[in-house]
Amino acid sequence: MLKTSSKEMLGKLGPLLGLFLIVIVITILNPSFMTTDNILNILRQVSISALIAFGMTFVILTGGIDLSVGSTLALTGAVAATMLASGIDPVLTILAALLLGAILGAVNGIIIAKGKVAPFIATLATMTIYRGLTLVYTDGRPVSDLGNEITFQMLGKGYFFGIPVPVCTMILAFIVLYVIMHKTTFGRRVYAVGGNEAASKLSGINVDRVKIAVYSLTGMLAALSALILTSRLNSAQPTAGTSYELDAIAAVVLGGTSLTGGKGWIFGTLVGALIIGVLNNGLNLIGVSSFFQQVVKGIVILIAVLIDRKKTA
Amino acid sequence: MIEMKGIKKAFNRNVVLNNVEFTLLDGEIHALMGENGAGKSTMMKILAGIYSRDEGDVLVDGQSYTFTSAKDAESLGIHVIHQELNILPHLSVAENLFLGKEKTIGRTGFLRTREMNKEAQTLLAKLGLHIDVRQPAGSLSVGKQQLIEIAKAINSEAKYIVMDEPTAALTDREIETLFDTIRELKAKGLSFVYISHRMEEIFAICDRITILRDGEYVGVREISKTSFDEIVKMMVGRELGERYPSRDAKIGEVALEVKGLTCPAVCKDINFQIRKGEILAFAGLMGAGRTEVAQAIFGNLKKSKGDIFIHGEKVTIKSPIQAMKYGIGFVTEDRKTEGLVLDFSIKENMFLTNLKSIAKGSFIQAQQEQLQATKYIEQLNIRCSDATQSVGSLSGGNQQKVVIAKWLSTKPDILILDEPTRGVDIGAKKEIYSIMNKLAEEGVAILMISSELPEVLGMADRVIVMHEGRQTAILDNVDLTQETIMNYATGGEEVVKN
């Protein structure tokens, strides 16, 4: 959106360079990383967390945060699964789940905008509430026997011209969200609210409405992730999505979006999500123990943020 | 004794103090006066070690010092009580008094609470304050908190106490108590620098007065040998010259009328009308409630009473969005916190108020945006590389023009400008005046808030003066003098109109 100098451009492409670097190192250590199957596998895994991270980018751009995404995923997934299990039309189920996600998000937005509660606190509370509701709703048991409706099966397991449907969904969502963020008046307002809320309000921007909208969008994207996950596993787990909010925030930050709001872009988030996905997969392939993987992931995030700090200082 | 000689201070290339003198004798109360932006605060911040000076000398008892921090100054007994008190409301009175100087058992870090409470009690009793020192400081009135600040200063063995607008939030009775305390301490040899806009207080308590204007030293006077009139003249006395372009606007029907506007604690019973093509100025001192009146009209501040009429029709305005629907624009006082998104480019800022004008449906038309922005850049003579330059990198004057462009793009009928030329250089100032004149000629009703009296006299058709939340005068700008306005603004005696 902004015209940028070459130096800024380099800064923006930093995450991409980081991704290439990680890919190269992993490929050298284990060439089987670079196979079509493995790449598609990574992309399919990434698609679920990337969708959530896309929504998180909007929220963080307004200067907020959403910790409830994982719980939203679990609750919408459980509801969708029970609807399918009781034989409700898959298209209707998908629409209902997306709507539910949007409503759960809107509740966050309303608490934050109208109740003037700090986003961290508001969504910390709803994170617990939504998780609790999921457990109550499912009685703590997974929901399975979802039937064999091809429409729903495609969502997580299908292929479209050889590309997994979740990956197609992610790319499509990316394009739509990219356009919303950078080409529409809504996107402009999102940046403005995060850049200077007081000035935005005094410019006649309905700040509350913008905030409610970004949390709704994030809730809906979490529901979309839930549908993909439920389809892939052919069941809904009440504990699904636990700590997904942290991966999403990490992806946004890795992508160079500022946690204070107003600065960032969704392409960076896509790259950030890919970095996390590649690390998860690559560290497995080169035989790093799953315990140690966490340490490596944390260090990568730290390095990325430290480089970012240097750049802006 | 403190002597400040030939003090010079500049921020970037903006000189805020130039060759300023100030002498504080032992056992005197010395007023420091000047208009907003005259350099009083900067001067005191240099004395307190918060800012460093570029040139000049600070002598304490004849010895030259260069302070690098507030601690340095405090160690010589210089203590500043800021307008916003430094009281931690949840800590007890005694804890506040001993903050940073706690008495401990050896070096263990364990507090000698009982001892400190006792000492605090004695100290406050000396100042005539008989309260339980264990209660939270926040539960006391502002007047008592003010006394606690003084006690804090005494507790750290202050010899020179600077007080910045100490009475702004006090009742008459609390002011009396404060003055008694100050006089008593003066008798014990302590010195005070007293910064205030309230003339009557200065005459009541001070021994001498130093006056600054535009960062320059104007003079020092003995209070007993000067007059209200002389001081006002020293504060404002400058020539108008050709700084204000003339305009030829037809004053039409009433565009905005405000009746009985009241906001709790900030303004009371404000009544006025503005006509099309008219520039109405709000004069007064900082904190007089002028900005709040504007914010209330614009729906950004809740009003408890009062009606607003636009073109004769009563309207309800509860948010900026509603105000904008009625054709009101608002160039806010602080462009960095309320006017601009600093990370945005010029063009992105310009249309925040009116995204529809550059969009088709929900989609922003990049070409249209660029074209319109370029038009405003040319019209307002904004000096920049192009419309994509970030506003954060523009000079104050050009930033202000971007804010004005933001509101021009909404084609307002009524435009409020709050301190439109603050922090703007002379050249850009004149350009902003020309823009205002042009708008008035086109029939826009303009409400300008300004603390610069020459600007008020140079631009306004009529002037409303406010003092402590009340409207003290509505004056036609005919043979109007700065002295008259200053008189109403400081709550002085009414002068006979010439």
Automatic annotation (TrEMBL), chain A:
Main localization, broad class: membrane
Q: Topologically, how does it sit relative to the membrane?
A: Multi-pass membrane protein
Keyword list (alphabetical) reads: Cell membrane, Membrane, Transmembrane, Transmembrane helix
Q: Does the keyword Cell membrane apply?
A: yes
Where in the cell is the protein located?
Answer: Cell membrane
Q: Which Pfam families match?
A: BPD_transp_2
> Which spans are transmembrane here?
12-30, 42-61, 94-113, 120-138, 158-180, 212-229, 249-276, 283-307
- Superkingdom per UniProt: Bacteria
The record's annotation in NCBIfam families points to: PRK09512.1
Please identify the protein, giving its name as recorded: Ribose ABC transporter permease
Which organism's genome codes for this protein?
Solibacillus merdavium
TrEMBL record, chain B:
InterPro entries listed in its UniProt record? AAA+_ATPase, ABC_carbohydrate_import_ATPase, ABC_transporter-like_ATP-bd, ABC_transporter-like_CS, P-loop_NTPase
Keywords attached to this Swiss-Prot or TrEMBL record, sorted alphabetically, are:
ATP-binding, Cell membrane, Membrane, Nucleotide-binding, Repeat, Sugar transport, Translocase, Transport
Q: What Gene Ontology terms describe what this protein does at the molecular function level?
A: ATP binding
The record's listing under Pfam families reads:
ABC_tran
Q: Where is the ABC transporter domain?
A: 2-239, 249-493
Q: Is the Repeat keyword given for this protein?
A: yes
Among PROSITE patterns, the record links this protein to:
ABC_TRANSPORTER_1, ABC_TRANSPORTER_2
The protein's name: Sugar ABC transporter ATP-binding protein
What is the organism of origin for this protein?
Solibacillus merdavium
